[in-house]
Amino acid sequence: MDKILRINMGGLKGPEVAIDTLGDYAGLGGRAMTSTIVAGEVPPLCHPLGKNNKLVIAPGMLSGSAAVMSGRISVGCKSPLTGGIKEANSGGQGAQVLARLGYAAIILEGKPLDDTLYKIIINQNGVTITPANELKMLGNYDLVSIINKEYGAKVACISIGPAGEMKMSAATVAFTDMEQRPTRHAGRGGVGAVMGAKGVKIIIMDDAGLKMRAPADLEKFRIANKLFSEGLKKHSVTGEGLPTFGTNVLTGVINEAGAFPTNNFSTGRFEGAAKISGEALAELENSRGGEGSATHGCHKGCIIRCSGTFTDKEGNFLTKQPEYETVWAHGANCGIDDLDTIAMLDRMDDDFGLDTIEMGATIGVAMEAGLAEFGDSKAAINLVKEVGKGTPLGRILGNGAAVTGQVFGVERVPVVKKQSMPAYDPRAVQGIAVTYATSPMGADHTAGYAVTANILGVGGNVDPLKPEGQVELSRNLQIATAAIDSTGMCLFIAFAILDQPETFQALVDLIGSFSGQKFTADDLTALGKSVLEKEIDFNIRAGFTAKDDRLPEFFSDEPLAPHDVVFKVSDEELDQVFNW
Amino acid sequence: MSLQLLVYHNNSAVFFPLFVHGVELNLQTGGTLQELLCDQLAIAPRILEDRLQTIMLNGKAVDDPGNIIVQPNDTLALSAAMPGLAGAIMRKKGRYAVLRSQINLSGNCREPQDSPIMKNRITIKLFNLITRELGPQLLDRGVFVKTANLQEMFQKRCLSIKKDCSQVLLNKKRIVLKKFGFKQIMEKIKKQEYIFLQVKT
Known about the structure:
The complex is a heterodimer. Chain A has helices spanning about 30-40, 95-100, 140-150, 160-165, 190-195, 220-235, 235-245, 250-255, 280-290, 325-330, 340-350, 355-370, 375-390, 390-395, 400-410, 430-440, 455, 470-485, 495-500, 500-515, 520-540, 555, 570-575, and strands at about 5-10, 15-20, 55-60, 75-80, 85-90, 105-110, 120-125, 125-130, 155-160, 175, 185, 200-205, 310, 315-320, 415, 420. Chain A is of the alpha+beta class. Chain A folds into three domains: about 5-205, Aldehyde ferredoxin oxidoreductase, N-terminal domain (Aldehyde Ferredoxin Oxidoreductase,  A, domain 1, 4-Layer Sandwich); about 245-295 and about 310-420, Aldehyde Ferredoxin Oxidoreductase Protein, subunit A, domain 2 (Orthogonal Bundle); about 430-575, Aldehyde Ferredoxin Oxidoreductase Protein, subunit A, domain 3. In chain A, helix 1 (about 30-40) packs parallel to helix 21 (about 520-540), helix 11 (about 340-350) packs parallel to helix 13 and helix 18 (about 470-485) packs across helix 21. By secondary structure, chain B is α/β, with parallel strands linked by helices. Chain B has seven helices and eleven strands. Chain B has a six-stranded mixed beta sheet. In chain B, strands 8-11-1-9-10 form a five-stranded mixed beta sheet. In chain B, helix 6 (about 145-165) runs antiparallel to helix 7. The longest helix of chain B is centred in the C-terminal third of the chain and has 18 residues, at about 145-165. The mean pLDDT of chain B is about 85. At the A-B interface, helix 7, helix 8, helix 9, helix 16 and helix 18 of A face helix 1, helix 4 and helix 5 of B.
């Protein structure tokens, strides 16, 4: 990864390609790369869909190598949803293939002079950009199918569906998985709308004839990779729980804890939780698709394999295993307890190119507004269809929960910085709420996901018995997450590296032996901190203040059943999160 | 009313979904949760320490089962380690326990006279890998299940259960499945809210 591909979509004679050296961006990857470029090159006050915004796509530092779990790819820009900086990341094949092609980033900039839609083809011979108006308004599934016929079934695709073309704030950027299905998405913040605004429908990447990226110290790298793999396999979460049940393993316990937002965050327990639990989902997938259907990786080199394959009642592939957040968003949050409906909504979201969290939260708000009854599966499907068609109602819904709540006069709208909250009610799990409130990304569970903070030793040692530790822990978690997001590693490695110091050390050694430079836990911490500093600085320059780091009022006013709790962390405490 | 099943090859997994809904047992209350788990449910201390990573009593997270008194009609939920920050937060004695301080059950120890030892109905929910580890022994011992949940399970998994069953006893009377299938059994028990289910292998 020694070059950056810049494409000015606003060239007078069409898109202009430039291949740059890394320069100041040398050594960066993933979120560190996207956020550094966006913070440095995008005017914070620009219109997110205008010529001055840039869409940056960057594989992680270790992507394209033999390092297991290194298939995450980051997409960054100024977000049309939040108005602040955005990094959304995804699994799939994109990271590995782009990295092997040698690109540390693709930067789409400028604005097309007309409404021509383009496809970009990247292989070892170079970059070709051609008009592709015949692909307009195709869903991601049909799109990839057409591309496979023309370019073969071994390419990796980065694409947008109709939602991206319509520049909706809930639009995603899709990445194909190992089976050439557009099931993996950089979902949050409307990154697909920015790709649509650049006039790019699809990026086709072919790494035929290219080898894996070679580490600087092969022997050390091999040893570290082996130890890291062993650590993941022997841990009960990464070696047993996730492969067996997927991320939806959380539903039962989060519901039991009264933290499972139900019917648009009106209560913390869902009566139908058992029907949509990870246990029920895995059993259904295995019974329909054969034993093992509930265990599948999203990219080559994934050894956790937390995904799965969901087949319909007739035995046909419908979608990948819906994630916990999707099951919650389209399930409990909308009062729906039917896995077939949830899987169908997941398929539609992937096809139209929509963020499942944003859409589930939006449908919940729409139901509260009276557009449908909670629990009405058909109505939920029809509402998402409206989005795919781009009807006036669909345009409203496709721009997310905040817009929908505003249009229909709903007070209970679960967003921070206009981005919908994920599947944990902040009243019951207040520590996550601190991250929801303060993350520069808007409400985002993954922003403070990497439970490595105390191993990294950032911010000193936190006493877990003291309530004030919530703020300190949230800060540390956000630093750790920003660092992991930069490596290209899947965040699900977090549990194993939290519990097993030797596995954490193997990760540090993996990075060090790959780059050939001395790398320590302190370096990883410094990386995470620098990423966050750039992101926060961008948001300040974009006009964000402490007032944007707040939860909606109803979380402080409406007690959440069954525990009757409200959000109690004070504004003063929230303001201390990034006071380092 | 009771339903006893004998299944082949230690194959009681088909009944595991019942544990996500929750099953009920008659257990002594008034003692500590640790006593209930280790003494009454015969869970080895090593399993309690290593495998039961999340314990919830009435929806509140338990860090120290030795410091919690079990009361009649309590609901106990047990889970193996779970992924992500939420998993870490819910973990017992975890370093992120403070992030769930609103729903912690930090200790409800009372004097023995306040909580006399007696047998009472306790609801137990098992999640994820813990179901595989503790489910068979609970089924072997026998549990009370909601008839509606059992009915739903028979409807979904009728063939599988029939295939694995070598013997069925309804109220201790043997039932020949070929002549007297699950439909008829459900017809007989449908008016009961609960049924005592025992699955032996």
